[in-house]
Design brief:
By secondary structure, the chain is of the alpha+beta class. It has eight helices and 15 strands. It has two domains: about 5-115, D-amino Acid Aminotransferase, Chain A, domain 1 (2-Layer Sandwich), CATH 3.30.470.10; about 125-280, D-amino Acid Aminotransferase, Chain A, domain 2, CATH 3.20.10.10. The strands form two sheets. Strands 7, 8, 9, 10, 11, 12, 13, 14 and 15 form a nine-stranded mixed beta sheet that branches. The chain is globular. The mean pLDDT is about 95. It binds 3-[O-phosphonopyridoxyl]--amino-benzoic acid (PXG).
């Protein structure tokens, strides 16, 4: 029976319940993290915890515990569920309030932590590469909801994901209000052209991905230049390689975009090399 950490206690899965008056549910008012566990170790723990606290701060959400206490709670949940290789969902909701928007009437934020196994993309996606499409749904304007905030409000991404699923694609590329590539619905986007790696700056409207940061570091260690610049649909169409990075996907090659073949239609050599380096780094 899996154990869920909920507001200070480990409880059985069927007892892990949140009030219907929680603003996390009523308004998507809250923040979260998705974190991997590799070889019993929480991956990039500090970076995820930092992002969680920064997201909370940006929306004036006070997390009712210090970050070191949060880390201990995460470790405790991983151990209680005996997770050696898996996935952690760490959620902070605004808490129980009344039926108005006012977040300051919510007495206390709720924290829950789930540690479970993760359903990965089929191995075939990694070997043969993934199909993606350009979403019509524009990424949230940074002045509306800063995309750096990993909030519980994912409708923008879900609408794009629905477009991808309807089109039979694995993922959707989201563009910002200016037409520049922002990100995929749960992954960051990279392209390779002439041996150089390009990725949109976070200001283009993406989450500052933890996997993105690791992959940029690994690429630089391999002597590959990484340039952050605005990318258009054209850049994706004419690139040698396209790949996505994220907690769930890790590093995954894209082989068609809007029906156009990327490179030679197989995951490219830099993509494959980075996937291998990522695996080694995660399991070191
Ligand atoms: N952009 C968005 C909008 C995301 O939600 C990423 C980029 C990649 O960031 P990280 O830090 O994970 O490298 C995310 C992360 C899932 C899933 O089940 C998605 C995320 C995290 C965990 C699981 O699709 N999104």
């Amino acid at each position: 029976m899996s154990k869920i950490w909920l507001d200070g206690k480990l409880v059985d899965r069927q007892d892990a319940k949140i009030s219907v008056f929680d603003h996390g549910l009523l308004y998507g008012d809250g923040v979260f993290e998705g974190i991997r566990v590799y070889g019993g170790k929480v991956f990039e723990f500090a970076a995820h915890i930092r992002r969680l606290y920064e997201s909370a701060r940006a929306i004036r959400l006070e997390i009712p515990m210090e970050s070191d206490e949060m880390c201990r709670a995460v470790e405790e949940t991983v151990q209680a569920n005996n997770i050696k290789s898996g996935y952690i969902r760490l959620v902070v909701t605004r808490g129980v309030g009344d039926l108005g928007l006012n977040p300051f009437l919510c007495k206390k934020a709720s924290v829950f932590i789930i540690a479970d196994h993760i359903k990965l993309y089929p191995e075939e996606y990694y070997e043969k590469g993934m199909k993606v499409m350009s979403a019509v749904t524009v990424r949230n304007h940074p002045l509306s909801l800063p995309p750096q905030v990993k909030s519980l409000n994912y409708l923008n991404n879900i609408l794009a994901k629905i477009e991808a699923l309807d089109a039979g694609a694995g993922e959707a590329i989201m563009y910002n209000h200016e037409g520049f590539v922002a990100e995929a619905t749960g992954d960051n986007v990279f392209v390779v052209r002439g041996g150089i790696i390009y990725t949109p700056p976070v200001q283009a409207g993406s989450l500052e991905g933890v996997t993105r940061a690791v992959v940029i570091r690994l690429a630089k260690t391999e002597g590959i230049e990484v340039v952050e610049k605005n990318l258009t649909r054209f850049d994706l169409y004419v690139s040698d390689e396209v790949f996505l990075t994220g907690t769930a996907a890790e590093v995954i090659g894209v082989v068609t975009i809007d029906g156009r073949t990327v490179g030679d239609g197989k995951p490219g050599s830099i993509t494959r090399m980075l996937r291998k380096k990522f695996y080694e780094y995660a399991h070191a």
